[in-house]
Structure formats: structure tokens, C-alpha cells
Design goal:
Layout: E1 3-7, E2 28-29, E3 32-33, H1 34-44, E4 49-54, H2 59-65, E5 74-79, H3 85-94, E6 104-109, E7 112-114, H4 118-128, E8 132-138, E9 146-147, E10 160-161, E11 173-182, H5 183-187, H6 197-207, E12 212-216, E13 221-223, H7 227-238, E14 254-256, E15 261-262, E16 267-269, E17 272-274, E18 279-280, E19 285-287, E20 290-291, E21 296-297, E22 302-304, E23 307-308, E24 313-314, E25 319-321, E26 324-325, E27 330-331, E28 336-337, E29 341-343, E30 348-349, E31 376-378
Parallel strand pairs: 1-4, 1-6, 4-5, 8-12, 14-17, 15-18, 16-19, 17-20, 18-21, 19-22, 20-23, 21-24, 22-25, 23-26, 24-27, 25-28, 26-29, 27-30
Antiparallel strand pairs: 2-3, 6-11, 7-13, 8-11, 9-10, 29-31
Helix pairs in contact: 3-6
The structure holds guanosine-5'-diphosphate-alpha-D-mannose and magnesium ion (MG).
């Protein structure tokens, strides 16, 4: 048996308003809740049992995946009443593991779309006798990640989470959010308090002389933490840039789910997803975008690299580029929305009604009925 712990307790703040009432790992990506792709890949790699470490909107995970039998997995859920941080969450979930002290346990962040070879990572860990193996990626801008320099043998030399100054950026290798721990190492993380695996556990393991290995590969990898990454990941799955056993249709330029209505003259491209009940009107153009269930794109609107929330409506002739429209929001005809704009759930934007403010406007949880307020916000992607 191979067991795993999945970290899914984060609030997904950078993806608001999409994550105001759906946790980030459950947002539909390429037609299914994002985690479905990751779980299917884990099952294909021989993982049999996964403990979910949940906190924010915890009950929604069990509602979606149940006991896991649909995916050929055994799933368990642990809930943190107050978030314990990544390390605290791992320690808490460790209580439910059945692996023996010397066995490898996979631990992964719940917001990563990755083509990493999980079986090879686990087998390499076992063969090396390491305490922990970290999957690493090379990225152009490592500032939003954990820096992980290694020596010629792949031994991790340091771990620096979210470097602040240019002097701190000594490598382009980052923590890819997927680890193999020897079970007994997990048992040594302090219980019952907030712990950051990145800021506390990894640096302490290095200081104590533990064998911490880093494995760099060229596989597909994306952290779906921002709206831009979210639409990119969905489009890449639809176009087959990264394989997923959970893709609910053939690889292609667009994925139109059953019960969606696309006018024959509309043009869909770039890995667009049109979810159940969504409507795309005459002459509309939708490129590299995610239209959630019941979204409506009116005639001749043009939507690029954007997310349109559930039951939201984009009026005739609107032009959207890199925009997030919250659930049930309405954008009146003729609006041209600038990149980075987010429209709150339930907001109504009248014709030529873009008004910007400094911070994103959150959705009211579930109650997406606040109407008539033309509030929009600009926020960096
Ligand atoms: N259960 C639980 N409790 N889960 C948590 C908690 C918590 O208190 N805090 C965060 N998580 C989960 C999130 O849901 C996510 O799946 C994962 O832990 C990582 O949290 P993020 O908030 O997404 O962190 P990040 O993206 O800024 O940085 C992390 O990932 C990078 C790779 O994408 C770090 O691990 C970096 O070192 C890494 O480079
Ligand atoms: Mg993340």
C-alpha cells in the first residue's frame, strides 16, 4: 500500500471571489473539480489511501469525493478547527496513517497541477534511504515559492520560503509542493500547534543533519493559486499539454460539457471549457477561458483567458481579457473590461460601468443575491 496526505486547508485568497464559497481544490478545472485530476494521477501511480487535511470549507471535500471508491481510492478526512499551517496539518493527518515507520508517505499541496512521476519519486526515495525527498522545479521568478538549492548529489542545502531580497535568490530551484517522507519523520513534527513545513520543519531537518533529497524534473508543473494560472491550467488540460485520466472528454481546442449550448457561429478555442447549462451566443468568441455552470456569454461578446462564474452573464458585444466574473454577476452590453479586473459575485455592472477600487470585493458566502451594486475591483493577477 502507498499512502498520501493531501493539504487542502488553505483559503485560496488570491482566487477570490471564485473561492468565496468553493475551496480552491474543488473549483472546476477542465470540467471537473480540480482535485479529481490530481487524485486520478495519484491512483494511477499506485497510491491507495489518501488522508485529506482540511480546514476551510472542510465538509465540501467529503461531499464531493465521499469514500473515494469512485476513483479507486480509500479517502479519509481530518478537519482542523483552526488552521494548523502546512506542517501542523501534515502532523494532524499523520495520526490516521497506517504505514509502518520505515515506509514512504507522499504529501502534496492541493493546488498543484503536475505531471511529476509520483511512482518514480517514491521509488527513488526508498532506494536512496533519504528521510525526505522533495520534488523541485526550475522557474524564472522564484519569489512566490520556497527556494531549494541542492548539491551535485541532489542533497538539499537550504530551504528559504518566499525570499524577500535579491541577495536571497541564490537558485532557480523551487519547492514544487510534493514530498515523500519516511513515515517516522512525520511522527517527529510537533503535534497540536501551528507549524509551517516550509519555514520550520525543512530547515530543522537540515540543521539536524537529516538526509533531505531534491529531485528536479522537466514535467509539466503549475501552481493554480492565481486567476491567470487557474485558466492556464484548465486550458492546458483541455489541450493535452498535461495528461489527466480524469479529463471528461477528448483532448482538443475546447471542452463542451453535456447540457451546454453553443451557437453554431460562436468560436471556441485555446482550451476553453463550457460547463453544463452554460450558453454561448451567436458570433461570440471565447478563447482559453473557463465558463462555469450556467454562465451566459451573449451574442458577439469576446472573452479571452477569463473565468465567468456560475450563472453569471456577460452582455452583448462585451470584451473581456484576463478577467474574473463572480457567480451570478451581470455585465451589461458593450463593456470592455481591462486585464486583472474582478467582478464580485452578484454584482451588476451597467453599460460602460467599470469603476475600480484598490482591493478585491469578496462574495457574500452562498448569498449571491446582492444586486444593483456596480462594484468592480482591479487586482493584480
Ligand atoms: N490543512 C491545511 N491547513 N492546509 C493548508 C494550510 C493549513 O493551515 N495552509 C495551507 N494549506 C494548504 C493549501 O490548501 C495548499 O494546498 C498548500 O497547503 C500550500 O499552501 P499555499 O497557500 O498554496 O502555499 P503557496 O503556494 O504560497 O506555497 C507553497 O507551495 C509552493 C509551490 O506551489 C509552499 O509549499 C512553497 O514552498 C512552494 O514553493
Ligand atoms: Mg499554492
Amino acid at each position: 500500500m502507498t499512502e498520501a496526505i493531501l493539504l487542502v486547508g488553505g483559503q485560496g485568497t488570491r482566487l477570490r471571489p471564485l473561492t468565496s464559497h468553493i475551496p480552491k481544490p474543488l473549483l472546476p478545472v477542465a470540467g471537473v473539480p480540480f482535485l479529481t485530476h490530481q487524485l486520478a494521477r495519484a491512483a494511477a501511480a499506485g497510491v491507495t489511501r489518501i488522508v485529506f487535511a482540511t480546514s476551510y470549507l472542510a465538509e465540501l471535500f467529503e461531499d464531493e469525493f465521499g469514500d473515494g471508491s469512485r476513483l479507486g481510492l480509500e479517502l479519509e478526512y481530518v478537519v482542523e478547527e483552526t488552521a494548523l499551517g502546512t506542517g501542523g496539518a501534515i502532523r494532524n493527518a499523520t495520526e490516521r496513517l497506517r504505514s509502518a515507520p520505515g515506509e514512504p508517505v507522499l504529501v502534496f499541496n492541493g493546488d498543484i497541477l503536475s505531471g511529476v512521476d509520483l511512482a518514480a519519486l517514491r521509488d527513488g526515495h526508498r532506494a536512496s534511504g533519504a528521510d525526505v525527498t522533495l520534488h523541485l522545479k526550475r522557474v524564472a521568478d522564484p519569489r512566490a515559492f520556497g527556494l531549494v538549492p541542492t548539491d551535485a548529489e541532489g542533497r538539499v542545502q537550504a530551504f528559504l520560503e518566499k525570499p524577500q531580497t535579491p541577495e536571497e535568490i541564490t537558485t532557480d530551484q523551487i519547492n514544487a509542493g510534493c514530498y515523500v517522507f519516511t513515515r517516522s519523520v512525520l511522527d517527529r513534527i510537533p503535534a497540536g500547534r501551528v507549524v509551517s513545513v516550509e519555514r520550520e520543519t525543512f530547515p530543522e531537518l537540515l540543521a539536524s543533519g537529516a538526509h533531505v533529497r531534491g529531485v528536479v524534473d522537466d514535467a509539466y508543473w503549475l501552481d493554480l493559486g492565481t486567476p491567470a494560472a487557474f485558466v492556464q491550467g484548465s486550458a492546458d488540460l483541455v489541450r493535452g499539454e498535461v495528461a489527466s485520466p480524469a479529463l471528461p472528454g477528448p483532448v482538443g481546442d475546447a471542452l463542451v460539457l453535456p447540457g451546454a449550448h453553443v451557437h453554431p457561429s460562436a468560436v471556441l478555442s485555446g482550451g476553453t471549457v463550457v460547463a453544463t447549462g452554460a450558453v454561448v451566443g451567436e458570433g461570440a468568441v471565447v478563447e482559453g477561458s473557463v465558463l462555469l455552470a450556467g454562465a451566459e456569454i451573449a451574442a458577439r461578446a469576446s472573452v479571452h483567458r477569463s473565468v465567468v462564474g456560475r450563472r453569471a452573464r456577460v452582455g452583448e458585444g462585451c470584451v473581456l481579457d484576463s478577467v474574473v466574473i463572480g457567480d451570478a454577476a451581470r455585465v451589461a452590453e458593450g463593456n470592455e473590461l481591462p486585464p486583472g479586473l474582478r467582478i464580485a459575485c452578484g454584482a451588476h455592472l451597467p453599460a460602460h460601468g467599470v469603476r475600480t477600487s484598490a482591493s478585491p470585493v469578496p462574495c457574500a458566502a452562498q448569498g449571491i443575491a446582492h444586486s444593483g451594486v456596480p462594484h468592480a475591483s482591479s487586482a493584480a493577477h
